[in-house]
Amino acid sequence: MPLDKVTQVSQTKPWHDEIPVYAQYTFGIAGERFFREIKDRGRITGTKCTGCDLTYVPPRIYCERCFAELTEWVVIPNRGVVHTFTVSHVDLDGNRLKEPLIVALVRFDGVYGGLVHRMGGVEPEEVSIGMPVEVVLKPKTKRVGSILDINYFKPI
Q: C or N terminus of the chain, fewer CB within 10 Å?
């Protein structure tokens, strides 16, 4: 019987068909609002813990330090600095890219965390840690409510 308890590996049989798996990924409460703000208003937001005086980007619904519920939302300036970066010359399949891809961790003043995203408008040899950058968004009509609504970060 299919529902009998298996007690030995020899009792198992291979399955030669597809197993339908249905799942829906959600951004969660904080992520939903974060991406909606980018999509609808073109701004980055975070959540603030008044007890720890920390502002989180990406936002969270609970403080990682004191576990308080975070209900205060703040707008973060669309400018930050490169905290670290890497230059990739190959894609995820190991194929050589025509142009190198620069990916940076951008941190924002007074914020705990940051965003990992592509850099644009800059050559790999020009990128540096501490470089001031700003968000370049897709046109409002092309935004869908994802991190890719941010085209890239460019130097300022």
A: N
